[in-house]
Structure formats: C-alpha cells, structure tokens
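> Could you send the YhdP central domain-containing protein prediction when you get a chance?

Sure thing. Input:
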Amino acid sequence: MGQNAGAKAKPNRSRRRRSRTGRAMRICVEVCGGLFAALVLIVAVAVWRFLEGPVQINFLKPYLQEAFSEIGGNTLEIGETFLVWEDRSRDIVLHAADIVVRDPEGKRVASLPEVAFELSSSAMLQGTVAPSQIEIIGPRIRLLRSADGNINFGGDGGRFEVPETTEGSIEDLATDAGPDGAAGNDEALILGGIIKELLSERTPGNPLSFLDEVRIRDGQIFVRDDMLDLSWAAPAAEISLRRDIVGLAGDISLGFVGQRDPATLDAAFIFDKQARVVDFAAGFSDISLAALAAAFPRLAPVGGVTSRIGGSVATSISLDGDIGPTGFEVHGLAGTLTIPGLAMEPLPVRDLVMKGRYDDGASRFDLDEARISLGSEEAPGPVLSLAGVFDHEPQTGGDWTIDANAKLEGMALAELSRYWPESVAADARPWVVENIASGNVQLATADVQILVPDGDFEAADLASLSGSLKYSDLVVHYLRPLPPITDIAGTATFDASAIKFTAESGSLLSLALGKSAVEITGLDTADKSRKIYEQLTVQAKAAGPVFDALTILEHPRLDLISKLGLSAAGSGGALTADLGFQFPLIKTLGFDDLDFQVGATVRDAALANVLLGQDMADGRLALSLDANGMEISGPLQLGGVPLTMQWKESFLANPKFRTVLEADIPSLDDAGRERIGLDFDGFLKGPVAAKVSMVGLDGGFSTLQVAADLQRAELTVSDIHWAKEAGTEGSLRVAVDLDSNGPVAYRDITLQAGDLVARGEARPGPEGKGLGWMRFERVAFGRSDLEDVIVEQSGGGFSAIIGRGILDAEPFVSKDEEPDGGDASEPQTDTAEGQGQAAAPKVFEPLSIRAADLERLYFSEDRRLEQVNLELVRGTAGWETIRLSGSIPEQYWSPRDAAEAEAEGVDPEAVVALDRRYLQLSLAPDAAGSGLRLLAKSDDLGALLRAVNITDSIVGGNIQVTGSSAGPSPTHPINAKVVARDFVMVKAPVLAKLLTVASFTGVLNLLSGEGIGFDGLDGEFVLDDGEATTELMRIYGASLGLTARGKIDFDEDAIDLVGTVVPAYSINNFLSNIPLLGPVLTGGEGEGLIAVVYGVKGPVDDPQVSVNPLSALTPGFLRGIFTADPGTDKIEAVPERIDR
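Output:
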C-alpha cells in the first residue's frame, strides 16, 4: 500500500509543475503582445507623422555644430534640424538646413542650403554625435588644377563667375566665368574640407573622422584646368565620395544638360593617396568628338568626326597631371568626317564605332578598331574601318607618326570623286574619276604610315602606303570615246607608288576579257610642272568576235585599219588576244601618247574586200599589233583561193617601209583566178603556184614582187603563135611598182616557160589597164631570139620596135591576122545582101612593127633571109606600109650561077662575095598621098622562093612586081604587074601533073631532069583580101608556054585556074607572029598552033588537074569553045568571089 501511495504521489507533483510553467508562458505572451501592439501603434503614429512632413529635432543642433566645428577651424551654425522620410532610400534621414560657416573671426565664409546626415552608431556608442554619411543637396562646386598640378577647391575667386542659367554647351558654361564674383566658393571650401576628413585617419576626438561617405545631389560643377588650359562645366551632378582603404573612392554622374549638349557621364574612381593617382572608369553618351578634340588637343586625330558619341573610358590620372594608360570604346551617331591633312569636303557619316587605348607616358595612341559607316540612311555609302597606332614624340617638337590599317567596304565608284581626296595622286585623280564611271569596290584594305610634323595635321606627309582591293562591275573608259570595258571584276594591290589591278573578268563590246593586269604607276614621282605623269599599263586577255575587235580598231579615235583599206563591216571569225596598253593619266590624251601591244590568234577569220575586190575567209591568223606597227600571218582564202600570208604594217612617222606583205599561193587555178578578177584572156590555163611580196612606202607607192611556178599550167601567146603544155617547166618573176591608183611600172620581168625566155620591163596601159609599154632586153621563143624589143600601145593598137636578133616569121605568114571589132568584122548576112545592103567594113587592130637590124628572118625551120630590115604598119583598115629588105643566104642561091661564072673564067667565091642576092619589098604610101605603091624585086627568083619557103621548083631568074592600091590592104585591092625573066622550073609537082595529064612526055621528061627553062613571066593580077585574080598570066620559054586565068586564095591555100599549055612554045610563038594567019592558027597571045586547054582546081599542094584533049586538034580561034560555059557571053576563067 505504501508503494502504491508513493506511486500516486509522483504524477501529482508533475502536474503541478506543468501548471506553473503554462501560467508563466501566458503571462510572457501577453506582455509581448502588449509591447508589440504599443510598438505598432508607435510606428504607425511615427509613420503618419513623417508622412505629414519633416519632424523637427533641434535638440541635435549643438551636437552637429560641435562635430563640424573642426573643419578648417571654422564654426558651423545650423538653422534647424529635422527628420525627413526619403522616398528614394525609403528611410528616415536627418537633415540640417540654413547652415552658415564662419571663420574664427566670425565672418561668414560659406552657406549651404541643406545637408542630410546619417549618424555613426560606433561614435554614439563612444558618446559622440558624428555623421557617417553626408549628402549635400544642390551645391555649386568649383575645382581648380593649377599649372603646377595642385588641385584646389574653390580657387582664388578671381576667374570664376557662376552662370545664371544651367542651359548651354559645355564650352558656354566653362567659359562664362569672369572676374566679378566669388559666389559659390563656400560649397567648394566645405567640400574640400570634408574630402580631407575622408582621406584622414579616424580620430576619436574628431567627429568627422567617423565620416565614411559624402554625397552631392543636384549639384553643379565648374572645372578649370590650367595645366591642360581647359575649362568645363556640368550643370547636373550626382557625386558619391567614400572612404577607401587606399584613399578615396567615388561615383560621379554628370549631366551636361543644355540645348546643344545633352551629354552624360557616369564614372567611378579610386584615389590612391599614397601614389597620388586616380584610377578612373566612366561611361558617357551624346558627347561631341569635335568638342572633345578641341578641348583635348591630344585627341586631334579624331577631331574630324562631328558625330555625337557614347561609350566608355578607363584611365588613371596623377595629381601631377600625368595620364596613365587609357582605354576607350565609342559608338557614334550620324555626323560628318573630315580626314586631317587631306583637302576634301566633309564626308557624311551614318554611324561609327571606335575602340582604342592611349598611353600618355609612351605618347602612343592605339586605335584597335574604328568603323565609320559613311553616307546616310537614305543613301548608304561605304563602310570605313581603321585600326592603327598614333605615336607622339614630344621630344622632337610634337611630331606624330601614324601607322594604320584601313578597310573600306561597299564603295560605289560612281561616288569615287567624293571619297578620293584631291591632294592624293592629284594628276591621276581626274582621269580615274572621269573614266572609271561605275562599279563597286567590295573590299579595300590599306596599311598606311603618315608623318605629322609638330602635330600639324594640315602638313601631314604620306610616308608609306600598301593595300588591296576587291571590285566588281567596273566600267572603265580607257580612251574616250572608244567603247568602255564593262563588267570588270577582280582584285588589286597598291602602294604609294602604284596600283596593280588583277581583273578576273570583263567585257569589251562582245569580247570577253580573261585574267588581266592593270597598273597605275608613278603615283609618288608624278610632277605635272615637269610633265611627269602617272602611267596606266594594261595587260589583258580577250576572246570574242573579230567584228568587235575591228570595230574598235577602225574607230575614228584610233583609225588603224581604214588606212589599210579594211573595215569591220562584213568581218567574221573569233579571236583570242593578249592586249597591252600604256599611256599617261592626262585629261587631254592623244593617240601619240598611247603605247599599246596586241597579240592575237584568229580562227575562221573573214574580211570583206581585202584585195582585188575579193573577200577573205577561213583565216587562221596570228596577229601582233603595237604603236609601231602590225603583223598578221597565217593561212587563209582570198576569193576562195587558199594561200598563206604574212603582212607587216608600220605605224612609225618615217619608216623605211610602210607595208611588207608576203603571200604563198600553193595553187591558183582558172576558177580561182576568175574569182579574184585575174583575166589572162586565154594566155594562161591551169593551176599555178606563186609567191607574192609587196613593200609599201608612204605616199601610196609600193612595190610588188611576184614569183610564179608555171609548170602545171598551159600558156598560149596567140600573137606570136607560141604555147607551152602543162608539165613543161615554167616560171615568172616580176616586180610591180604601184601608186594609189594602181600599177605604175613592171620591172625585172623574167619569164621562162618551155622555150620562151623574156627579160624586160613594162608600164601599164591607159587608165592602168593592161600593158601599155614593154621593153625586153631579150625575147626568145622557138627560133626567134630578139633583143631590145619595145612594144607600146598606140592608136588603139600596138607598135613594136625590134633592135636586133632573129625572128621566126613562119607562125605569122601562115595566115593573115584575124580582124578585130566583133560584128563589124563579119560580112553581112544573105538577107542583108538580098536587100542590097553593103557589107560592114572590116576593122583591124592597129599594128606597127619595125625591125631595122634583124640578123635572120625565118620562114620555116631551114628557110630564111638575113640582114633583114622589116617595117609593118597596119591601120584599122588594113596594111598601110609593108617594107621588107634582106639578103638571101648563099645556100639558097641558084646553083647554076656559080657554074656559069666558072665557065666564064670567074672565081665562084668572087661571085659570092660580089653578087649578093636580095629581096626588096615595099608597099607604102605614094608621094602624092593618093594611095599605096607596090614594088617587089629580087635578083634571084629561085633563091627567094626557096628562102621564103614557097617552092624549090624555081632556079635562077629575077622578078619585079609593081602595083598600086587606093588604100590599105586588104580592104582595098592591089592592082599589080609581075615581070620575071630567065628562070628554070624543076620538078614542079603541079606542072608535072598537068604535063602528065596532057601527055606531053618529052617536056615532062625535061621537067624531071635538068628542068624547063623559061624566058619570062608576064601578067597582071589583082590582090584583093587574100585572093590573087588574073585575067591573063603568061609563062613562056623555048620548050613550053602556059597561059592562066583564075584565082589563088592565099587564106585557104586553094587554087582555081584555067588556061592553055603550049608545047614547043618558041615554034608556036613564031607562027603566031605570021600576019593575019598567025592569030587565026594559034588563037592569039600566049596561044599556039598546038595547045591544050587545062583546068587546075583545089588545094595548092595537090589540086585536081583536067585537060581537054580535043582542044589540041582545034585551031586557036576555035579553042575557046572548050573553055566556055553554055549560056554565057564571055568566058570567065575566074568565077565571082563570094566574101566569106
């Protein structure tokens, strides 16, 4: 039980303890709740009170006055103190108003409108009322740095005047100070003292030593820096100065509020009082670079930018005025750019960015990046980027050295004149600006070094320059008004002396330009006063139509091909060319100033009217062209004729040769000659090969050399009855002198073809056609070999004078010359004759031949005359003069002459020496001019007939023919009389045939033996147009007599005669002399008692012979019935001639 009682007692005690703890807790909570409620009520009342306005707590004035009385030994009077709720900091702040500072003498030296304090808790624990933070509201602060580097607040009051307005530029506020007042020095003095306290060590007896921060709100700052000769003002200033372990730290926010300079500056700094250096970092906006450069001369390199800028800067400044390394970053708005040292209009700027560093100790300005976007938003311009180093050498008088790298992007060359300074390459600039009309520089970079003596950027000198370009779509006028080069794209490098372009592509008309090089040199040596100019050199590759290339070359500005008779019209083909040009960059560029080189290959070249009116085609040519001349070579076709040509043309003022042209023609056939207009009028047929060269001189004079291979050709010279067959070797060489109108002379003519050899010279005929005059040193063909031959056109025909030599007349005497004159030479038709119309007269080509000293005149291979004098004159109506005289060679003389001389006791050789046989023939105008007279005679008829290859059947005798004609032959008949004596007829085929048919055996035997001797031949005949007609011709001798009537046609070599053959002619002739009975028995003259009527008709060589045997038994007076045709009144031995 006792145990149970004890067990029950323990829980009861536990419950009592919990009850007492609970009551204590309730009491504590109630007390805390009451305190909290009271606190809330107090706070609510306090907040309500502070919201109602400042709460005066003037009991703190003595403590604050005591705390600030340490400033410079001055005393502080506070009008009132109060607590203010600060919305900005959301805190309750102690304020003091109407503060007056007096010096020890009680004189008022400063006043402050209002100051906010934050009291130091650590000072209060030490029983001292001291501020830890001070905020000065609305002060005016003056800061002065003297020329020796000392910084003072307030200054001497002799040079500052606080402006009445806070509006205006920095310059306005900084320079409005004058000598008339010192108001505002009080705030600066107080601030200077406070700053000293912030820099001093904490001292328990000094309330201000507990100060940690001083702030200025809504202040105004005015600065004068005599060391930099700079004054500036910030009418809106927020400053925080804080005690720092190294000295002093602070934040500054300055607002340069005005109508023209709405600039701001936000900065933070730390002042190391031991090093006496301020480390400064700031951000700024809306500051004028021009104004900044004007204020700080060392920033002159950027003074040409008028853009307003913002950015940041970090630097350090010693109290001695030394500026430490400074870094900055700037971004700018629209403005203008003026480049120092370059005379040019300010450039519009869209925006800019700059980053850099400045080291005042090293006098070095590093521009890490400067990017300026030129132009405007409406018309954007290029973007210029610049980076570099600006070195300043104070010890050399302030010289600057600028090493910079520049980059230009998006440059439109149409605006080049705006961005190219006139003072840079002043001579080249006008040409480049004018002639590079459009295009784009996509990218340009440059490394430049500029020397600025004594900091005078107007006197800046370019020390070095190098860079590169990338461009496209350029249009370049290389020589106005020639077509420009377009679509040029490529790269370039440049330095102070030259710009070197490498173009990857371009176009000139339809010519495509390949990789090309363009250099502008002499940029550093040009001197206009000494006529030393920049030079432009172009090396280009081009490919395209020949037409476009010739269009450029024939342009009046060059006029290179019109002088050659060439034109772009009708041209064709494609070329690949290497082009080179060089000329000075002067505005008045002339052709003489241009130096150029062109090398080209041409495929399928075609030109119209190149030579002889013919077109060129299928040319595969190589061309070189420069200012001195042109050279073209290669195979081509001229008028369809294949040839290989080499042509050189000189452009020099006074060349030795203006033109040198060589052509190799492997084959020129009849069709080819016809196509190129070479008509040889039947002289030449078949292909020939030729080498032609021409040398041209000024004045239109030139010489053409021709060497032709005639082996494969047929040659025919009908005038001399000569021809060469194909396959026989032949060649022609000739030099032709020409002027602007055509050939003037043909020199050094050498023709060798078969047996034809000709050497001589010639001149062209009237109007340059044909050959008007020829002189041959020698002409040889067949048996002819003539020297000193002159042939000349005369009176519509030709005249020839032969000096000496040998002439083969056989081809000429076979037939008479064919008449000329077309239809005029043809007889009238039968219809015309039937109508009684007369036949048109024949017209002959005039001809004159004079050969006064022919060694031999051949009539066949072994028949000739010697020592011949020949004259032939033919007019349009026929032969007007025929004179021929010559000696008959001894070998043709009648052999019996020598025998007779020997029988008479005369030496035969003496007969030969003394008795020359001759021929004399003359048909010439008579003395009265009424017609022509004929005289022909020879002292050896047989020798003459043998020498001229008529017949060998006559031996001995002499002959004389006389006659007359009313006019030239053959248009006028010749009436002639022939007399021959003492000749012998031997082995005459026609006579033998006649005697055979007539059965006169004895006489025939005589003819076959020693011959039939005749005493004479007498008769008259008419020679009319190649036919000889006789009414009676008698040949008579002792053994035989003949009569003949009829004709001999020399043109047709035909004979048609009738007559009587009388044997024993001497007896019959005796009977005929018996009066009355003789004529009855014999039949008259030439008849006989015994005679046979005959007829001979047909070819001369083999005529048909007929006789009437009954006529031999008929008396002479009845013999005519055997020769008369029935129904005719008169016996006509020769029928009427029908003109053919």
